[in-house]
User: Fold this.
Amino acid sequence: MSENILEKIVARKREAVARQKEAVPPAVVQAVLDEKLGEPRFLQTIARENRHLIAEVKKASPSAGVLREDFDGVAIALAYERGGASALSVLTEEDFFQGSLALFDQIRAAVNVPLLRKDFIVDAYQIYESKYHGADAVLLIVGILTEARLQQFINLCHRVKLDALVEFHDNEELETALAAGATLLGVNARDLRDFSVNMGILPLLVERVPPDCTLVCESGIRTEQDIEFINSLSQVRAVLVGEALLRAPDPEALVRQFIWTLTR
Assistant:
């Protein structure tokens, strides 16, 4: 894929946010937040002893297309929870991943584990919106934000009591994340510009993460061998797995299998 997929997604997302602001003005979202400012549970959960599996709910991706023809997001989320996933990641981007906040709401009502809203956050409105919909955490992607904007968003997350999982893909992005004050970090083996995956970059990136940060490994984890590879990276606290679980005949069983390999 020679085109920059990330740029296309971000441009479409800016349009979608503008439409959403017209439908539900920022003042409406912010006005109800006082009732929803409970403490987030995402970071406190994955920072506990042992390693953790974050299981992802998404119908499709730009690189793989539809991942499961019989997709039932709520049923999948419940299977993940039964399997022992410590937290769930739910894609809400509509155009490229076929997600929605409506599905997020349904999953929030069905499960008790912490939820990460995974989307392309380009506007402060989306952070308020995420808390409004009951998220415990949001994903902030360094590759689409300036350092100043990233710092602003991290501070806003603290203010509305959301955990901010700050995602980086290379050394420069890691330095930007740290300079902005991020302490919950996601190292992504996938280059979002072309959606290629290179697990080989992980050891060098992981060793550069300060020991006082909480580190999540994202993307490209498909097999037990991949989990064993992650186990060799001592600083990783959690792994986020999506495609492999969604393609599995029995997602609950694969969650259990991955957790057993991750924690043995």
Remarks:
- The mean pLDDT is 91.
- The longest helix spans residues 5-23.
- The first strand starts at residue 52 and ends at 57.
- The chain has twelve helices and twelve strands.
